[in-house]
Amino acid sequence: MFESAELGHALSKGEFRRIEPGLRADLLDAQYALSQDGRFPVILLISGVRGAGKGETVKLLNAWMDPRHIFTSAFDNPTDEESERPPMWRFWRALPPKGKLGILFGSWYTAPIIDRVFKRNRPSDLAREVEAINRFEKMLADDGALILKFWFHLSKKRQKKRLKALAEDPETSWKITKRDWDFFKLYDRFYAVSEEALRETSTAWAPWIVVEASDPEYRAVTVGRTLLEAMSKRVAAPPERRAKKSDAAPLVHPVDRLHILDTLDLSASLARDKYRKALARQQRALALLTRHPSFRKHTVVAVFEGMDAAGKGGAIRRITAALDARLYRIIPIAAPTDEERAQPYLWRFWRHVPRLGRFTIYDRSWYGRVLVERVEGFAAEADWMRAYAEINDFEEQLARHGAVVIKYWMQISKAEQHRRFKQREKTRHKQFKITPEDWRNREKWNAYQVAAADMIERTSTPHAPWVLVESNDKYWARVKVLEALVEALAVRLKG
Amino acid sequence: MFESAELGHALSKGEFRRIEPGLRADLLDAQYALSQDGRFPVILLISGVRGAGKGETVKLLNAWMDPRHIFTSAFDNPTDEESERPPMWRFWRALPPKGKLGILFGSWYTAPIIDRVFKRNRPSDLAREVEAINRFEKMLADDGALILKFWFHLSKKRQKKRLKALAEDPETSWKITKRDWDFFKLYDRFYAVSEEALRETSTAWAPWIVVEASDPEYRAVTVGRTLLEAMSKRVAAPPERRAKKSDAAPLVHPVDRLHILDTLDLSASLARDKYRKALARQQRALALLTRHPSFRKHTVVAVFEGMDAAGKGGAIRRITAALDARLYRIIPIAAPTDEERAQPYLWRFWRHVPRLGRFTIYDRSWYGRVLVERVEGFAAEADWMRAYAEINDFEEQLARHGAVVIKYWMQISKAEQHRRFKQREKTRHKQFKITPEDWRNREKWNAYQVAAADMIERTSTPHAPWVLVESNDKYWARVKVLEALVEALAVRLKG
C-alpha cells in the first residue's frame, strides 16, 4: 500500500500559496455546512510513522477551519478510568457528535500494530483485531459517520533524515526520544505489520488514504482536498429515506409451531418458606463473591428484559439487596438525551460500562433496538437487523475485559400480565407503574414474543448467554435470577 | 451538636415493623412525585463515624425506594482523572439531575475533617474550607436543590462496642481494618473537629441532622421520616415565580460619567510588520512555556468575552496556533443540552475543566449569566446577582489547583462593530457569522456595556484578573492577548 507514497510527491511553495486561500475558505464552508446539516459526524484518523508531520497537519486543519467546532483527541497512555474498562471505551467517549468534526490522533489501530511489531501478540490476534475493527467502523458508518483514515508514510531513508533533522534542530530536539530511534530500528517490521493492517481495513465505508509525508505542502493539500471532497459530497447527498414499519414476522419462517419461549414451564413455582431460605442463601453467596479477591479484576454487566410487569424491578432489587450500595449502578432505560441522540446507538450504553469491581444493571437495554424499536417500527429494518451483530461485538468486548455478562429474559403468560396490570391499578404505590402505553403494548403481545425469540436465537453467545426465566411465580423467578448470577460469577472468579 | 445523639434513642422491632410498610409506600410515592415534578434534585449526604451503619442505611433506602432512580456515589480515593482537577470536580460530576435523588457516601466534608484531625492543615484552613462549603451548598440550594446532611453518631463507648462486634463476627470482620482502630484512638479529636465543622455548616439551606446510630431501627426510621417530610414539603410548595426582566441599570449609580470601558484607548494599533514580529515572538514564548517542566502541574483556563465581532475567534486562533493540538480544547458556548439543563448553572463549565498540562479556552463562558442573561432578562435578578460570588468561588478553586485563569474582555467601538458586521455580510466564508440576532443585540449596546463594567468590577480578582483588550485594531488586540497569557503563565511556572 505504500508504493505510491514513495514516489517523491511534492508541491512547490508557490503552488501552495496559490491553492491555500481557496481551499481554506472551502473547508470552512464545508465545516459550516456539516454543522447546519447535523446528520452525521466526520471522524478523521491521523496515523502513520513518527516524524511524518501528523501534529503539524492537525494544527493546520485547526487553523484552516473553525477550531471551536473540531474535537481533537489524542490517545497516549490510558487514564486509570480508561484502563478499568474495555480498550474501546476511551474511543467511544471521544467520538464527535453529529454535525462535528473529530480528529483522532492515534486510534484503535495503535495498540494492535505495536503489539504485533513487538510480538506481544500472535498473527492470529492481529487478524482477529482487524476483523473487530472492520465491524466497529462499519457500525459507525452504518450509523451515518463519514470516516476518513489518513496514514502518513515516509520511506526508511526519509524517516531517518527527518528524525535526524528534528533531533538536531534545537527548536524540535525535545520531540525526539530514544523510543523514536528504537522504533526506527524496527522500520521494516513496522512497514510490514502496518501494511497488512491497512490493507485489511481499507474498506468502502472507511478507506485508508496513504499520504507521502515528506513534503509539508503536498501533505497538507492532499489531506485538505480529500477531506473537503468527502465532506462536500456527503452534505450534498440527499437524505436517505429508510422505510420504517412495524415488523412482526419471525426472521425464520416457522415450519412447525415450536417456539423457544413456549418451551418454558410457566407453572414453575416455589413455596414461600423455600423461597426465603433459597433467597437468603443466594444473596449470601453473592455478597461473598463480591468480596472474593479476584472480583477486583472483574465486572458484572446484567441485563433485564421481558414483557411489562414481568418482575424485572423486583428481581433487580433482590440482587442489589445483597450488594454494598457503592458497588452497583442501575441504569433504567429512558428516552435518550440530546447528547445521546447525537451519537451512535450503543453510545448511551457504553457510557455506563462499570469500572473493575463494580456492577452495572441495565433495566431494559440495547436490546430495545430489536424489541420495541423493531415491533413499533421506530428503527428501519436495516438498522435493527445489523444490531444483532453489533450487540454481540459489544458484549464480547465487555466479556474479554473481564465482565460477567448475563442477560435475563423474564417470561410471563399473557393472563398473568393481565392479572398484574389489574393489581397495579389497585395498589397505591404501584399505580405509577401502569400507563395506557402498557395496555397498548399488550395488544402487540405476539409480535413482541416473535421479536424476543429472534433476539434470543441471535444473541445467545458463550460469553453472554441469555437466561430464560419462568416468571409467573415471582419467588421462582427471583431465585432463578440470583442462582444464575451466582453461578456465572463463581465460575468466572474461581474458574 | 452530639449531646442529644447520646441519649440512647431506640425503637422496638415491633414498632419498626408497624411503621415500615407505610413509610416505605410514602417514600416511594414521594420519589415518584419528585420525578414527576422534575424541578429540583435531592442531595443526601450520609456521613458520620465508622461502624455507625451508614452502608446499611443506604442499602435500606435503596430497598425502600426505587433504586433505579437513586444515584448512589461513594468517594474513596480519587481516580487520576479526578486528582488532576480541583477537589470539587469529582463531586460536581456526581450531582444528581433534577427530579432525582442522589445519595453521597462521603462528601466534601471528608477531606477537611480528616486533614484537621491529623493536623495536616491549620485551624484557619478548616475555617476557610467550611466557609467555601457553605457557599457551595448555598449555590446548590439557590439553584433549587433540596439538601439533607445526615451525621451518624456513636458515643465513644458504643463505637468501641460496635467495632468489636463487627470484628468478631466472621460475616463482617473483613470490614474492620487497622485503620478503623487507628481512627478510633483519635475519637476525641474526631469528635471535636467534626462538631466544629458541623456546627459551622448547619445552615438553613443545608441543615445537618445528627442521628444517634446505635439502634438500627431508630436510625432507619429517623432518616426515612426526615427525608420523606422534606421531599413532600418541597414537592407540595408552589412553584417559585421569580420575575425576569431585562436589566440595564448599573449596579452602582453613576455619579460622574467615568466608565471603566471608556478609559480604554481604542485607537491603539500596531503596524503589520511589527505585528508579525511580535506575534511570532509571543507564540514562540508560549510554545516554550508549554514545554516547561512545571507546566505538567498546571493548567490554563482562558475565557473570551466581548461584543459580537470583537475578534474573539481570531485571538483564540492566534493562541492555538502556538499549541500542540493535543494540549487544548476550545469550548464554544452554545445552548445547554438537556443533561446540562438538569444541573446547576456552572455544571456545564465544570465538566470541561482541563486536566493538568492542558488548556481549556472558553469562547464565551459562565459570564453569560451576568451579560446576556441579565441584559435579555433570561435570568432573574436574584440569580444573576448571586452569580458574581459563585463565579469568584469557581475561579478560585481552579486557581488553587494550579490553573492560570485569565479572562479577556475584548472592547470595540460601536462604529467598528458596524463596519465589521457589514464586512462579514460581504465575505463569503464569514457570512454565517452574522445573523439577525447580532443586529438585535447591537441595539442593546449600552446595556451590554453597563453589564460588562459591573462584571469586570465584581469579578476581577488577584487569582483571575480581567484583561481589557482594546480591539478596534486586530493586530494590537491579538498581540495583547498573547502577551498577557505568556506573562501570566511565565509568572506562574517560574515563580
Helix fraction bin of chain A: 40-55%
| Spatial separation of the terminal alpha carbons of chain A | 44 Å
Average pLDDT reading of chain A: 93
Strand content of chain A: 5-15%
Q: Could you say how many structural domains of chain A there are in total? A: 2
- CATH T-level fold name of the largest domain in chain A: Rossmann fold
Q: Mind telling me the C-alpha Rg of chain A? A: 27 Å
CATH class (first level) name of the largest domain in chain A: Alpha Beta
Give the uncertain stretches of chain A in residue-range form.
Answer: none
Q: Most extensive chain contact?
A: A-B, 41 and 42 residues
How many β-strand stretches of chain A?
A: 10
Tally of contiguous helical segments of chain A: 20
What class would the helix/strand composition of chain A place it in? alpha/beta
Record the strand order, biggest sheet of chain A.
2-3-1-4-5
What's the helix-strand series of chain A?
A: HEHEHHEHHEHHHEHHEHEHHEHHEHHHEH
Describe the biggest sheet of chain A?
A: 5 strands, parallel
Q: Could you say what the CATH architecture of the largest domain in chain A is?
A: 3-Layer(aba) Sandwich
Q: For this structure, what is the CATH homologous superfamily of the largest domain in chain A? A: P-loop containing nucleotide triphosphate hydrolases
Characterize the overall form of chain A.
Answer: elongated
Assembly form of the protein: homodimer
